[in-house]
Here is the input.
Amino acid sequence: MIKVIAPAKINLFLDILGKLDNGFHSLFMVMQSVDLYDEITVSKGECGISLTCSDARLPRDKGNIAYKAAKEFFEATGIEPNAVISIEKNIPVEAGLAGGSADAAAVIVGLNELYGTGLSKQKMCDIGLKVGSDVPFCIKGGTCVAQNTGEVLSRVKHLKDCFIVLAKPEKGVSTAAAFAAADKAYIYHPDNLKMLEACSKGDFEGICKHAGNVFEQVIEVVERVEIKEIMRLNGSLLYQMSGSGPTVFGIFDSKEKAEGCAAELREKFDSVFVTKPVKHGAKIIKCDE
Here is the structure.
């Protein structure tokens, strides 16, 4: 049995550069892993793939991205499918935090260890890309620039130690609907070159200054203004929506400010977390023979 922790991600920067001929979108993103984890266990069963999940709203068959990841792993390695997968959800769903992609990444990493296939991280990322654009990053983790459909990943200097408050309104956002809305809108593009320069230098103030997410221009999240105002008043250095939303994150330079902000947000919202940046993606924490 292999147990893997799967960190959530936030988007410090997200720009849509255009739509590709295959229907996908070319993106420029800066992604950051945070220490809010789903826990995934994988083990061998009798035959086939079976999946259980602590969140009853999520499918337990091929409709679940983690199930698809297992299927792709077995097809890529030529191993007869045999896996029992259990997912303990802590990352909210439809939140812009890559919870599903994180689970898929953890399944690939876990099966690689369980079957001793010795796949390189790049090979695991190649498998992951077949089921989701964020999966390669969720395998690699840390602080990365992600380009095109998410398959081009470049490490940049790790985000300095800080505290990141996540606040998710009750209603989720469909990623597909978000991209469809972006396709119809005129978008103001933030300066990705200045953001890249700040990231390459590890310039924390520059990152906060040049951060941006174009989905904020096309996705209406009624609570976003209120959440941002609470974060601002509590001393947040950056407050921004992650991914296609609706989660808003705020970056703080002290635990006290972050905890104070979280306490105020919890008076109005159920899903509020105080996190820190981490330098890893899906990570094995237990391995039993």
In short: The domain at 163-275 is CATH 3.30.70.890 (Alpha-Beta Plaits). Residues 99-114 form the longest helix (16 residues). DSSP finds nine helices and twelve strands in the chain. The chain has a mean pLDDT of 95.
